[in-house]
Design brief:
mainly alpha; Rossmann fold; Tyrosyl-Transfer RNA Synthetase; three-stranded parallel β-sheet; 325 residues; single chain; 8% strand; 14 helices; 2 domains
Length: 325
């Protein structure tokens, strides 16, 4: 049967931060060693919320691609492509929109949640309502059967399985129902203590320089109990220690934790260790990025587009035959 096919994607709404590495990209790099992987820059998905001010989507495509390449997503092992370059996606989306019940889309939890979170934008559009269906098409058009997801995306994947099931019931058992590859997504705190997010302007980016990392971490909020140097702290309540969990060794974490509880280490020294560890971790990414910045990376993307288009074209032709149009 050959390799299982993994499909995943990201919206080009800005650069990747270290939360994206922990939550997705680390898994992408590992999965490409075992499976046939399709990784898509999903610019149509970006348009569902950014349609009123879309000028940043196109330049963000190159930045996102450079982030992926810098962390080790390998275009020789994975198919890396741009969603809007695969026109077959739109046609398959239209076909599936004919059989997808409106109520299925309206019950998606993120439909109401994002309308509240992004209340400054008019999201009462067909495109925004239908984006979970578009996610389904992204997966099945390349015959994806494994989808790495966090717990917040499990509902979307179950909806995709229902939609595929309905198609198969009508037209024959053609598509595999995609299976989730559940990945734990640690909620890394940003430099203000809230969840790390581009929209909060509190992120540490994969492309940040050593100097930028230092400037961001030095003023970070720590455990509020430590008003003075000799006040003991509780590491579990400290955003800086939460980052240590991802970028420091177990030995270092134990030493820092014990010292913090006894006020044997100050917050400044604790931050210095974190700054060094994050910079050491990001250095190979920076070096790889420098090499790719000298190339026309959009050519790399076009090669991936050709591979994805070939698969998508074959899928669409067979679907049209099944649907008899």
């Amino acid at each position: 049967m050959g390799k299982k096919i993994v499909m995943s994607g990201m919206r080009p709404t800005g650069s990747c931060h270290i939360g994206h590495w922990e939550g997705a990209l680390k898994n992408w790099v590992e999965l490409q060693e075992k499976y046939q992987c399709y990784y898509s820059i999903v610019d149509w998905h970006a348009l569902t919320t950014e349609y009123q001010d879309s000028k940043y989507i196109k330049p963000n495509i190159r930045e996102l691609l450079l982030d992926w390449l810098s962390v080790g997503v390998n275009p020789e092992k994975s198919v890396v492509y741009l969603q809007s370059s695969i026109k077959e996606i739109t046609e398959l989306f239209l076909i599936f929109s004919m059989i997808t019940p409106l109520g299925w889309l309206e019950r998606v939890p993120t439909f109401k949640e994002q309308k509240i979170q992004l209340k400054d934008r008019d999201l009462n559009t067909f495109g925004f309502l239908g984006y979970p269906l578009l996610q389904t098409i992204d997966i099945i058009i390349v015959r994806g059967n494994i989808v790495p997801v966090g717990e917040d995306q499990v509902f979307h994947l179950e909806l995709a399985r229902e939609i595929v099931r309905k198609f198969n019931n009508f037209y024959g058992n053609y598509f595999d129902e995609p299976m989730g590859f559940l990945t734990p997504i640690p909620k890394l705190p940003g430099i203000d203590g809230r969840k790390m997010s581009k929209s909060y302007n509190n992120a540490i980016y994969i492309s940040d320089t050593t100097e930028t990392i230092e400037k961001k971490i030095k003023p970070m909020i720590t455990d509020t109990r430590r008003k003075r140097r000799n006040d003991p702290g509780v590491p579990e309540d400290c955003p800086v220690f939460a980052l240590h969990k991802s970028f420091s060794s177990k030995h270092e974490m134990k030493e820092i934790s014990d010292a913090c509880r006894k006020a044997a280490i100050g917050c400044i020294d604790c931050k210095k260790i974190l700054i060094k560890n994050i910079n050491d971790f990001l250095e190979p990414f920076r070096e790889r990025r420098k090499r790719y910045e000298k190339l026309n990376v959009m050519d790399i993307l076009e090669k991936g587009n050709e591979k994805a288009r070939e698969t998508a074209k074959r899928t669409l032709e067979e679907v049209r035959e099944l649907v008899k149009i």
